[in-house]
Amino acid sequence: MYNVVLNENNFPREVKQADFCVVGGGMAGVCASIAAARRGLKTILIQDRSVLGGNASSEIRMWICGARGADNKEAGILEEIMLRNIYYNSEMKYTLWDDVLYGICREEENLEVIYSCSVNEVKTEGSKIRSVAAWHLTRQCWVEVQADFFADCSGDSVLRISGAETRHGREARGEFDESHAPEQADDKTMGSSILMQLREVPGHKEPFVAPPWARKFKREELESRNLTPKHNNFWWLEFGGLMDTLDDADDIRDEAMSIAYGVWGMMKNDPSGICDNWTLEWVGSLPGKRENIRYVGDHLLTQNDLEKEGRFDDRVCHGGWEMDDHHPDAIAYRGFPTIFHETPHCYGIPYRSLYSKDISNLFFAGRNISATHMAMSSTRVMGTTAVMGQAVGAAAALAFKEKTDCRGVYENHIAELQRQLIEDDQYIPWKTQALSALKIGGELTSSCDKADPLLNELERDLEGRDNGLWLKSDDSVTWSFAKVQSGGVIRLLGDSDFSRKKRMPCSDTLEDEKAKMPGQLIKSFELDLSDENGAVVETIKLELNFKRLIKIPLNTSYSKITLKNVVGWSGEAHIFSFDILSV
Fold this sequence. Notes:
Layout: E1 2-6, E2 12-23, H1 27-38, E3 43-46, H2 76-88, H3 94-106, E4 111-114, E5 117-125, E6 128-136, E7 141-152, E8 166-168, E9 192-193, E10 196-200, E11 238-239, H4 249-268, E12 278-283, E13 293-295, H5 303-307, E14 315-319, E15 323-326, E16 338-341, E17 347-350, E18 362-364, H6 373-379, H7 382-402, H8 406-412, H9 414-423, H10 436-439, E19 443-446, E20 469-471, E21 476-485, E22 489-494, E23 522-530, E24 536-542, E25 549-553, E26 558-568, E27 573-581
Parallel strand pairs: 2-3, 2-7, 3-4, 7-18
Antiparallel strand pairs: 1-2, 5-6, 6-7, 8-13, 9-11, 10-12, 14-17, 15-16, 19-21, 20-27, 21-26, 22-25, 22-27, 23-24, 23-26
InterPro entries: FAD/NAD-bd_sf, HdrA-like
Protein name: Fumarate reductase/succinate dehydrogenase flavoprotein-like protein
Pfam family, one: FAD_oxidored
């Protein structure tokens, strides 16, 4: 429900109430919103575009990358979305990917998404944000959201007008002893890119005439760029690092479009004929930003933190992309357009870098977290920002429950936050937790093999070690209890094959892009709940599952629970955990 009032310009102003308001519907904002809503918060997500996904949406089409190495892939809500996309969008069409994101948010009963709405007003009281207001482009009205907690996942740090401290540009090398930082601080940033997608048309030579406003390029100007058509998404069609990505946004877009059409015109009409059988399928109209304004939290993440693996006591998520520092001169730079500085394939990110040090109810997730330019060059990628978002959403729910603020979660409830995140399949490096069923006297046995892999607290394969249990359809796993139990939630964690290709295509559109569900992921199973005499009192069946994490509430008393008839999408299933959570 909301109230409608008229402001001085006679445009309607709707006033909405929420527990948690997220600004920005990229992957960080989507995951933050879902995490909070599932933990019981009435959540409103405000998105300034008509689709979700940010740089991953059909408007920009950048693939979601994150920690390197198969064992380090992001799990949790992001993995659920990826699997959902395979299930509903096996042909990997970007227009349907938009709708997959739309659908998962629509199905959350505690979540409302407001599209085409741009925040331009923040009201504060002391050190707290009380409300934000946004102009609704399609409905031509103001929407005000009053909430207990806010998260800025906009990338542009739009809630900085609350008075939160921010940083911009590149720090000097000596400020934090970062060896890869420039000698002197400056306002330069990484540029924004407009991507292109090509399509191969064998046997058909398609002509192309560049428009008059396209830039003219000579091949030797771009000798350090990839000028082959196959599997090329042209991420280096970049501009704006020497400008202000907010104030100069229109100029950056216009020049990026000019660059894109100019580069393709040069490639297509090159005398070598390398692009004769290729056609231009799509050119983005919205630049994808890499860098803008960053907040300052209780901890400022640095290059050295990443290189030391981020072993913070308050780590709540992980990264693992290299420090990918694009040259601010962008397309004008004659050398390779980015420098990859090595980081560990997995490092921890502290909770203290995800909330404002001076606005007590402001979280943030995305490229705008509390980090230096060098650290942000790694943490900015969307797989990493998505798990930040999940951490922030869970933290907001915990803060609301405990009647504290962002910092209070760190000071008094960080262990509980980490426990909840792991329960929801968030990977926190070097941190595990014991099975809940063991704490209430449960004994785990398996008909097929020793159940030890399900007791080691590791919920993914690591360093080549298989930490799961393979099950054929006639195998079973059973929890037995000395005392009758009632209630609880079954928690079953399968294997979605982190080594698989799971990203949306950001290069040439090919006919073989059709994706398949991971073969070892649980497709169907049954659960038998038995009483103290061994009689089955209830059987629960699940078919056509596409989730890695499965939670099923229990309403029957039981002394034994048996998992049986487990079938993977292409045969045997592989599971990492089978547990009963307390209510």
